[in-house]
Amino acid sequence: MSNEDVLRAVLTSWGEGMEAAAAATREHFADDCVWEQTAIPTTTGPEEAARLMLGMEGMGFRAIEVDYRNVVAAGDVVCTERVDHLVGLDGTRKGSFPVVGVTEFRDGKISSWREYFDSANLAQLG
């Protein structure tokens, strides 16, 4: 599995629900992976990241659907330009966010992931 395939598998799992997202996080994050997102707590390691994903249900979201605009892979880095759609417990999209992510890999695992988006878009969630 290429680094791009790994990242696409993780992002695809988000659309399958938070349990699937947490499982993919545990499988594909390195033990010391740092995941940084604008206006969202930084996580270290797969368990913290999985808990963050599982916590989305408590905030009223069951999935995150991802539409890709561009994906670029070079060596141990995969960059994505995409739109993430937060899906509510009722199945409707509650908010959409253009995102750019820079993901670094080590030995086939995600070792660092930085995501950039306009945090003002969070205001549309209520």
List the helices and strands and how they pair.
Layout: H1 3-15, H2 18-28, E1 29-37, E2 40-44, H3 46-58, E3 61-74, E4 77-88, E5 93-106, E6 109-116
Parallel strand pairs: 1-6
Antiparallel strand pairs: 1-2, 3-4, 4-5, 5-6
Helix pairs in contact: 1-2, 2-3
The unreliable regions are none
Question: What percent of residues are in strands?
Answer: over 45%
- Sheet with most strands: strand arrangement: 2-1-6-5-4-3
Radius of gyration: 14 Å
Round the mean pLDDT to the nearest integer and report it. 94
Number of helices: 3
Q: What is the second-level CATH architecture? A: Roll
Secondary-structure-derived class: alpha+beta
- Secondary-structure element order, as H and E? HHEEHEEEE
- Name of the top-level CATH class: Alpha Beta
Task: Give the termini separation.
Answer: 39 Å
Write down the domain tally.
Answer: 1
Oligomer kind: single chain
Per the CATH scheme, the topology name is: Nuclear Transport Factor 2, Chain: A
Envelope shape: globular
Q: Estimate percent helicity.
A: 25-40%
Count the E strands.
Answer: 6
Please describe the biggest sheet, giving its number of strands, its sense, and whether it closes into a barrel.
6 strands, mixed
